[in-house]
Amino acid sequence: MGNAADAGDAALLKIETRGAVLTVGLNRPAKRNALNDGIILALRDCFSAIPDDIGAVVIHGVGDHFSSGLDLSELTERDATEGLVHSQMWHRVFDRIQYCRVPVIAALKGAVIGGGLELACAAHIRVAEPSAYFALPEGQRGIFVGGGGSVRLPRLIGVPRMADMMLTGRVYSATEGAAYGFSQYLTEADGALPKALELAERVAANAPLTNFAVLQALPMIAEANPQTGLLMESLMATVAQSDKEAKKRIRAFLDRKTAKVKPT
Ligand SMILES: COc1cc(/C=C/C(=O)SCCNC(=O)CCNC(=O)[C@H](O)C(C)(C)COP(=O)(O)OP(=O)(O)OC[C@H]2O[C@@H](n3cnc4c(N)ncnc43)[C@H](O)[C@@H]2OP(=O)(O)O)ccc1O
Questions:
Q1: Which residues are known to be catalytic?
Q2: How do residues 37-64 score in pLDDT, each as one tens digit?
Q3: Residue 89 near residue 1 (C-beta atoms within 8 A)
């Protein structure tokens, strides 16, 4: 990969602000949004500088696909040492997405393949439309996942299904992706981006401390032993409910100034 100090190619992302929501479009449609060094470094730059007034991010693909994965043309000359550096750079960039200050929602359509699937795994919510399909063709290419997929994806779909994807390279449909716990939402045709934006507006309106707790504490609590997890939960709950934002929101409900919980 280019030097880690290199700047990413900003043109490879289409970044827009819609109120409190930042939309980040992978912008190499002619190459089906294949992830080259320029786009990975641009993602790093983008997720290193989320403006303070942004409350959620939607990541999507410009054109008909989310991403066709690693740009294979960059792999042909790479030796093992370069491969290790490259994979660890991807890990750092995808970690930056997973540990982002605000929720990240992936809107998925068309190809969600290899490294593109690994990128989607780093988001907190995945919304897919019927055109989306998921595959890990690394086996067919003689390689192994290198963008954190072997850590994140089995936690979503389980090791046996992950092993099936990696060994067979079979294409999983959008319906399967939702049924197996990869995507939390399955929309109608062309519905992924609108639904992702709707969800982003909704989560951006949460108290910042609630989102912080869900993004930073929940994954650790869920993986901790039960005693540690319960202690962490109590501490997080105490901090959140002591915050003036929580007091304000609870008062608003008790004074009937805010909406009731109702089915959508
Ligand atoms: C970081 O460390 C790592 C990372 C990884 C990650 C590994 C992977 O991601 S493996 C998966 C690699 N991806 C693929 O094998 C998919 C290949 N693409 C396709 O199968 C198809 O292009 C398609 C996505 C199904 C779309 O088909 P279609 O709409 O018909 O478009 P095409 O005509 O095929 O393509 C148009 C154009 O785009 C080029 N292109 C598409 N995908 C890629 C790609 N992944 N890399 C490079 N280029 C791509 C295609 O060649 C065409 O180019 P033209 O110049 O001919 O127009 C592993 C290990 C690590 O350490």
A1: 118, 138
A2: 999 999 999 999 999 999 999 999 999 9
A3: yes
Instruction: Answer for the pair 175, 187: CB distance below 8 angstroms, yes or no.
Output: no
In angstroms, the CA 101 to CA 90 distance is 19
Where does the chain show beta strands of DSSP type E?
13-18, 21-26, 56-61, 104-108, 111-113, 125-128, 133-135, 172-173, 185-186
Phi-psi region of 15 (alpha: psi -120 to 50; beta: other; left: phi over 0): beta
Task: Given the cut 0.95, state whether the ipTM is greater than it.
Answer: yes
128 beta partners: 108, 186
Check if the beta carbon of residue 39 is closer than 8 Å to that of residue 9. yes
70, 88, 166: which to mutate for ligand 1, most atoms within 8 A of CB? 70
The token duo for 88 is 């660890």
Beta carbons within 10 angstroms of residue 48's beta carbon: 10
Q: How many angstroms does the Cα of residue 108 sit away from the middle of ligand 1?
A: 16
User: How far does the centroid of ligand 1 lie from the alpha carbon of residue 201, in Å?
Assistant: 32
Distance 134 CA to ligand 1 centre (A): 13
Helices and strands: H and E segment counts in the chain = 12, 9
Pocket of ligand 1 (CB under 6 A): 31-32, 34, 68-73, 83, 86-87, 90, 111, 113-115, 137-138, 141, 143, 145-147
Q: Atom 47 in ligand 1: which residue has the minimum CA distance?
A: 71
pLDDT in tens, 166-191: 999 999 999 999 999 999 999 999 99
